[in-house]
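Entry 0007
Protein: ABC transporter domain-containing protein
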Amino acid sequence: MMGPSGSGKTSLLSIMGARAQKQMRTEGGVTFNGAPLTKRLKRRVGYVLQDDLLYESLTVKETLYYAAMLRLPRRMSHADKLRRVDLALTALGLRQCKDTIIGGFFRKGISGGERKRTSIGVELLIDPSVLMLDEPTSGLDSTTSMHVLTMLRHLATGGRSIIATIHQPSSRLYQQLDKLLLLSQGHVMFYGQAQQAGEWFSRLGYTLPYGSSLADFILDLASADVAVPDSSRSGSDGAAGTPAAVVGGMDGVTGAWPLQAELCTCALHPALLALPSQLLIQEHRWGAPYLTQVALLFRRSLRTRRFESMKTQDIYQFAAISLLAGLFWLQAGKDDTVLGARNTLGLLFFISMFASFRSLFLALYTWPEEYKHMLKERASGMYRLSAFYAARTLSDLPMDFTLPTAFFLIVYFMGGLRYNAAAFFGMYGVTLLTMLVAQVWRAGLAAGQGTGRAAGDGAGCQSLPCLGRCRRGAAPHPRSPSPLRPTTLACRAWACCWASSPWCPRPRRPWPPW
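Output (structure tokens):
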């Protein structure tokens, strides 16, 4: 598929591959050989995005390994899946870089062409009947683009239908195409053999200039950069030079064939010719079992953090904050007055909130990129959402509990809280539970794409354990009535509501009010 920017190439490809956004309004349906696009058929369709969404810390072989273990059917043995990975590495020419990390902006990895071939290899593992690629040559040089397109043509000779969108191919790339679908402003300008496009438009009066590239010429024509010949002009001069004028004159040309008839008569991969009943019977056998999904995602999540250790900066930061908090609330827990109880309440609140909000703020840096990977893999049917949620939660526990535990130990003893096992382990358990709630809620933020309103609700709920600790944990019991008793809280809540109501009498204030 070719066309200028904004012609609808990516939109059409996403609709055909069942990857269209929910807010996109479409009409009609997508069928394969007359059968509706079910989940089983969707797993037989490979879809490669324009952006190579790969984990930077994984190697090429590890990327293909986890994709194979999650996507290939469970009836295949582990040895067969490993053999499929080796075949993909050999077919795509990635064996020499199989142990090299993907890399990114801050860490050197494989080249751009190897990244693109790795993305294609993730989809080729399932042996798709139809492979769709959104601008596979985007951001690559001419030589690398030629290698990628030559590889795709070699894969097409094996019985696969490959559909790709190309923005601006060179003459060599255009020679690799079998058929061409030219789009302009959402309309079809041409569909047929790619090498016959020049003859097609010459019948309409658009002759290819001598020495010009056919790919550049038809793109200029789709962008309305080529003037409409006098023989093709309509009565209105306003339609001259527009792609609509070309589209309107196509139906009357001898030799044209309808697009719908061509799509209905084209041959498909034999795997798509199975009966719908057989597809429904085998649908549950796809993918790994639930516990296997959790285990694989857990291992992959740990491997993606192989370069994320406890940095010296984080250790110094926690040590400095712990000492400052300990000095600020130094021996505050030994004061049995009301003021001491309030100071201890502030200390308990700070301990829980610091540990919790540290876990929450990590989502601002990690989850936006993680969410893109999850959307891509979920669209391919790799795993359940709950499996991703559970694996991500378990993999975050070691990093989230080590430094906050050291912070808790320093602040607890410097704050002068109770020196007995029941109070210490009780408060430590509730603190860990609060951090766990924050960590679980953070994982749910990515799994469910939480909003800012949900973030505020979750942050407010995390202050509740502090109240329970003040009642039964490490806070000293003041001699005066506790301000945290239910009756006191109810009276204060009623007083606040009454003071904010319009019926509450207000005293006269002197003028001016300041």
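Curator remark: The chain has two domains: 9-229+240-248, 288-493. The chain has 21 helices and seven strands.
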